[in-house]
Amino acid sequence: METCLAPLRAWLRCTRRAEEKVSHALAGLSKASARNPWKCLALSFLGCLLCGLGFLRFNSISDATELWVDQHSQQMKNMNWADQYFDGFGRPNRLLITAKDGGNVLEMDKMTEILQIADDVRALVDESGKKFEDVCLDLGNGCFNSGVLRYFGTTAQFNSAVQSQADILEAVNKATYPDGQDAFASDSMGGIQRDINGSVISATAVRVDFVLYAEWEDMDTWEGALTLHFTKHDLTEQRYEKVNVYLQAERSRDDELNRTVQADIPLFALAFVLMSTFCACFLGKTASWTQSRRLLGVAEFLLVIFGCIAGYGTAMLVGVPFTVLHQILPFILVGIGIDDAFVICGAFDGTPKTLSYPKRIEVAVQRVGVSITLTTLTSLASFLLGATCVFPAVQWFCYYAASCCFFIWLLHLTAFPALLALDAHRAGLTPPRLDPCACFAARSSCMPGVLPVWDANGEEAAPEESKLGKGLCMMIRFLTSHVAGIVVTLLLFLAVAGIAAWQVSNGLGTDFDIMDLTPDQSFLRDFYNKEQEHFGGLSTGGLALPTNYYIRDVNFSTVEVQRSMEQVGAEMLALKSINSERGLKSWHTIFTLWANQYKGTSASLPLEAFVAVDVNRDGCAAGLPKGISSCATHFLTGPTFPNAVLEFLWTSMGAQFDGDIHWEGHDISVIRLRATHVDTVSSEEQVEGLEEAEKLTEKWQDALPGSFMSSGAYIFFDQYRIIVAQMTSSIGLCLGAVTVISALILGHPLSVLTVIIVLGAWAFK
């Protein structure tokens, strides 16, 4: 047995010697600070201010894709790659319009007012003098009309074509828009009622979209004017007679999130005042005018703030971005700093009064300095291990926290002993100086309990223990004086930990409600509420989500590649998560039909370039338009293929696919096939859709190397998939770090186990 315990005892002796050396070093540092308090304070604050120069490199990031998405995930790489070759379809700003009477919004008088609303928006002039026509998405024939207006066009076109309620219903029941694109009523109308034939007869809400495509600053400025038109004091303003209008501009989410944070600034200030007041009241004797340490408490609070300035400045200096999340960090850091101050003051009060103030501080820090250092070390280890999380917002938060923890620890071993020495000198003068008015001497009436208390034998009596201290001692004696008390305490603790673990296992989810980012009283929350009420979900979530399959760096003129495009499109459409009713948008299928129709009529369509293929081949029907059931009989191949595609894109039939092909000179380098996901409302459904897309991508790597299926929302679906694992691994790493540090310092296995169980239960809670 002795042989087995020998290494442990040797380790404990080694750690004990190391602890003594560290303790003496920290105590010496604090003593030196207490001997030269003003020099120490000047150097400390100067150092903090120098570190604070890092604020000159302030860089704030608020984009969700940069904060809460794994920047190195395959989905992020796919999205960034696709954005290089294919432009987004403008920047949408959406109006959701309902009838004031709660009825059918497709009635003639209400639709007329909706057209008037659209005209009012088009006439808006922003502060830079720009109108909608200056920043809109122009497809060559004027600003693009999206939403319900796409069925009718401009106000003039509506007035000339629509004379009655029947004309409105006829227009919204058409299978295609006037521009030839497929129309789906649920994209622009909510609360739809249909007759027995499936035709739309009424709707409780419609969408009207104003799509922008200009310089970012110009779009942002015009959206500000749009927001002011439909809101007042950040609340929805209803200014029309027959309909209610609810707005979501593209900038609205960022605006409302910033307003939420700004609204909390008074609460932040109040919280800081309360924390500094608590520190000032309880760091010393609360009821004493000379021994209360009120001034020291306020100085301690400011010390933590200077530590935060130094930590934030250092993080910014090395290029770590600032986010909204960092605004809550000072609350955590103030708690850490105040804890250290209370520990040092408690140890200082327990030192012999006959010693000089620097010597008393040395003895106090020698007693508790290692403990403070070890708790700081565990905090640093936890934050730095937390920075291994893949989400940048969490990484940057942990970097800032670790930097601040280091400076707060350093200030509490240098500047705080200096402050404590000055405060002790104030209280020890004859007569002592008032706290916090240190310039005024205290009268005898202000000094109850300051003079020593003598017992019956004429000797100085020990100070009376506080009621709180007595109560805690009684509780500990009661719980540990008998085995039964110890067992009951452990059982209760384990029961609470078990209940917490059970709650975590049942309540842990990854669903994200975007309304949590908006204030309770907000025009954007009004919009979200109405969209959920009339459309059954949020368009920013999983309603009619578009997706694409990208194919690159292959010879698109070969039969093999063209067959692969047909097959991958068919398999894409067959996925459970894809809406088969909306079909597949395949430029290749429509182009092949067009080429077969005009075969041999131009130099780019020579007869000898066509290769016969099986008309009943698998997958060929996936991209066929409505009303056509037969596949093309031939594929166009050879060097004229790119020229033929260009001719096709210039036709009315091919113009809709112009954005689906990227050219490098006269050659096709990248193409995409388009589809739409089914509506989803939960993260589980969205993750399933993402995993289907990943499996399809993997399957086609041999035939179409480098191809992939991607959508802008996939980066967030990937976030839902990994967020639980990331949280679990972060907690596990932190517990592991604490375990290692505890094992190195505490030595006793039972003590280490107790620490881990306590921290684990806290994490579950």
Condensed summary:
With 765 residues, the chain is an alpha+beta fold. It has 26 helices and 15 strands.
List the helices and strands and how they pair.
Blueprint: H1 2-35, H2 37-52, H3 64-67, H4 74-85, E1 91-99, H5 108-122, H6 132-135, E2 145-147, H7 155-161, H8 165-172, H9 185-188, E3 189-190, E4 193-194, E5 200-202, E6 205-212, H10 216-230, E7 231-232, E8 235-236, E9 243-248, H11 252-263, H12 265-282, H13 294-317, H14 329-349, H15 357-386, H16 392-412, H17 415-428, H18 467-480, H19 483-507, H20 523-535, E10 546-552, H21 559-573, H22 587-597, E11 610-612, E12 634-636, H23 641-649, E13 661-664, E14 667-676, H24 683-699, E15 708-710, H25 714-745, H26 749-764
Antiparallel strand pairs: 1-6, 1-9, 2-6, 3-6, 4-5, 7-8, 10-14, 10-15, 11-12, 13-14
Walk me through the structure:
This protein is α+β, with helices and mostly antiparallel strands and 765 residues long. Among the domains are: 92-259, no CATH class; 546-712, no CATH class. Helix content is 54%, strand content 9%. It is built from 26 helices and 15 strands. Strands 1, 2, 3, 6 and 9 form a five-stranded antiparallel sheet that branches. A four-stranded antiparallel sheet has the order 13-14-10-15. A two-stranded antiparallel sheet has the order 4-5. Helix 14 runs antiparallel to helix 15 (357-386) and helix 15 packs antiparallel against helix 16 (392-412). The radius of gyration is 36 Å and the shape is elongated. The two termini are 40 Å apart. Residues 449-456 have low confidence and may be disordered.
